[in-house]
Design a protein that fits this description.
5 strands, alpha+beta, 2 domains, 14 helices, about 65% helix
């Protein structure tokens, strides 16, 4: 039976990530209600203590309502165990212990078999140490409840039977605890491997899309960005400007100071370009000492303002703290995308404008007509 979506939202909330935990708690609450019905029937038939039955019913009803309310309201999100797995496990074990005291002695063995079953869901949520702690708590409840029963009902001739039941349930608890820990450990290892794989994949994707020296996106990735921007412009026409930048006389830097200093110059310039230009602008290393900038929703005049701001930063002395004598200038060519023009054509025009800036003496910006 599939519930209507409005009813599902009412029961589980609007956050899909919480549905699994809340749904499981609802199932446990339904089991509480079912067992409450069994206790009432057992009391009516004389198989449950009339004195303890009200407390047992209160335990079952309060537990279900409390845990569902904490999860459904979101209050449990503030705690270290937001799904209340450990707390619900302990409470279920306490309810089993209460049931042991409430029902007739001939049915106590059946009640105790529920104790190991509590461990089964925890293997998917708790760590092995927490599973051991929960198992130890169940064992102590088992022993304590048996001792309390002997004290309250000293005349029952079931001492040896109680010992046998405790030993049997303890053996099952130990076995289930071992399996649950193994499953939890395997799940933890799989999660770590999955996170490591995701991290490695993210690094590979980053390396494939970025220039290893400057950290800017590379030429291949820039083509993808340009293609996406071109399709956007087909739906909404906005002024878009491409800027081709090139460091002037960069070969002299390599020849005079070495390639290591040349690499530092490229990294420093890339850092300044990425910082001084707008957040919406996309800066890429096009090749060698060339950089291509996509300025969406920007006219050539607006792009020129950003370039002059970048020039001021580049001319700040010293350009490199490690080599104060290094001086850098750059030239740029600008091309505003024409209606229905391809990105390749606009890049070619920006490159031609850059060539004109170089021919005109460098350290200047030229705009393609």
């Amino acid at each position: 039976m599939v519930l209507p979506p409005p009813l599902l939202r009412l029961l589980l909330g609007s956050n899909p990530e919480r549905h699994s935990a809340i749904g499981l708690t609802l199932l446990v609450s339904a089991l509480y209600l079912f067992n409450a019905g069994l206790i009432l029937a057992a009391q009516h038939l004389g198989y449950a203590s009339p004195a303890l039955t009200p407390y047992m019913l209160g335990c079952l009803l309060v537990g279900g309502v409390t845990f569902y309310g904490l999860l459904r309201s979101g209050l449990s999100q503030r705690w270290s165990d937001p799904n209340l797995v450990m707390a619900q496990g302990v409470y279920c074990a306490f309810a089993v212990a209460m049931g042991y005291l409430t029902v007739h002695m001939h049915f106590r063995g059946v009640v105790l078999t529920l104790m190991p079953a509590i461990l089964l869901p925890t293997q998917f949520a708790l760590s092995p140490p927490r599973i051991r702690q929960l198992t130890l708590g169940m064992f102590l409840l088992l022993i304590g409840t048996t001792a309390v029963n002997w004290y309250v009902n000293p005349g029952e001739p079931e001492v040896f039977g109680d010992i046998l039941r405790c030993a049997y349930v303890t053996a099952i608890l130990v076995a289930v605890c071992g399996v649950a820990q193994r499953v939890s450990h395997t799940r933890h290892e799989m999660r770590l491997k999955s996170e490591a794989l995701a991290s490695a994949l993210s690094k590979v994707e980053h390396m494939a899309a970025h220039d290893h020296l400057t950290g800017l996106i590379n030429r291949h990735r820039m083509h993808e960005v340009l293609d996406k921007e071109w399709h956007r412009l087909q739906r909404q026409a906005h002024p878009t400007t491409l800027v081709m930048m090139d460091l002037d006389h960069f070969k002299r830097v390599n020849d005079s100071f070495g390639h290591q200093v040349g690499d530092e110059v490229l990294k420093r310039f890339a850092q300044l370009a990425d910082t001084c230009l707008r957040d919406a602008d996309v800066v890429s290393r096009w090749g060698g000492e060339e950089f291509l900038v996509l300025c969406p929703d920007t006219s050539a005049e607006q792009a020129l303002i950003a370039l002059h701001r970048l020039r001021e930063q580049v001319q700040t002395q010293p350009f490199l703290d490690s080599h104060p004598s290094v001086q850098i200038t750059f030239s740029a060519g600008l091309a505003t995308l024409r209606p229905s023009e391809s990105m390749a054509s606009a890049i070619e025009r920006a490159d031609q404008a850059l060539y004109q800036a170089k021919e005109a003496g460098r350290d200047r910006f030229m705009q393609s007509p």
